[in-house]
Amino acid sequence: MARRLDRAAREDESLRLDLAGLAAGGRVLDGGDAPLVFALGSSAVNLADDFYVVSAAIARKLKRRAVLVCGSHNDQVKAIEPGDDLFIIQYVAYEKLFPHACLIVHQGGIGTLAQSLRAQRPILVVPFGFDQFDNGERSEKLGVGKYLPRKDYNIARATPIIEALLMQPIYTKRAQEIGKLIQFEDGMGNMCDVVERVLADTAKHK
């Protein structure tokens, strides 16, 4: 228990510093309309290709501010013209950033998806591999957003989808409904309880 509390304290401090760094860069969280957020988790970010360049162009076409979380791959964003409307950051705690977004575009990894749902924001899932395709389809069926294959993620295809997600209140309403359900779940606590029960049962039968 002590180790769990110590880890939680360290993570809380890390998240606080992340948020402070985000607020200092571009001031995207202070005043103005909520930004679009484009993020690719921990794996897809390593093979983003033109994802961030396309995303920046979409945001500017829609005249929306945007945050691009690009990891350590500055080569994937070097072609983007800098400006006060865009904030590019390598790392940030999603649970601190996502609630400030108007919409989140991500790869659909289960961790990123969970954080975006908890944030109660509509999403566009652009899967790169693994379970992300299924997660995208399920998200669309839930009504919290849309699913667009990576090969189709371009300015012409993605812009009207993002615009529709922003303009049609049903997606925000549904995202809020699902997000509230998830916020009441104690996933870590439930997992620890299950592990402890399994260990206790195993010990009894030895």
Q: Can you describe what's shown?
A:
With 206 residues, the chain is an alpha/beta fold. It has 8 helices and 6 strands; from the N terminus they run αβαββαβαβαβααα. Strands 3-2-1-4-5-6 form a 6-stranded parallel β-sheet, sandwiched between helices. Helix 4 (110-118) links the parallel strand 4 and strand 5. Helix 4 (110-118) crosses helix 7 (169-183). The relative contact order is 0.12. Mean pLDDT is 85; it is low at 1-11.
In short:
The protein is of the alpha/beta class and about 210 residues long. It is built from eight helices and six strands, in the order H-E-H-E-E-H-E-H-E-H-E-H-H-H.
What is the element string, with H for helices and E for strands?
Answer: HEHEEHEHEHEHHH
Radius of gyration: 18 Å
Question: How many separate helices?
Answer: 8
Q: Spans with pLDDT under 50 lasting ≥5 residues?
A: 1-11
Strand runs, count: 6
> What sort of overall outline do the alpha carbons produce when their principal axes are compared?
globular
Q: Layout of helices and strands, plus pairs?
A:
Layout: H1 2-24, E1 36-39, H2 51-61, E2 66-69, E3 86-89, H3 94-97, E4 103-106, H4 110-118, E5 123-125, H5 132-142, E6 145-147, H6 155-167, H7 169-183, H8 187-204
Parallel strand pairs: 1-2, 1-4, 2-3, 4-5, 5-6
Helix pairs in contact: 4-7
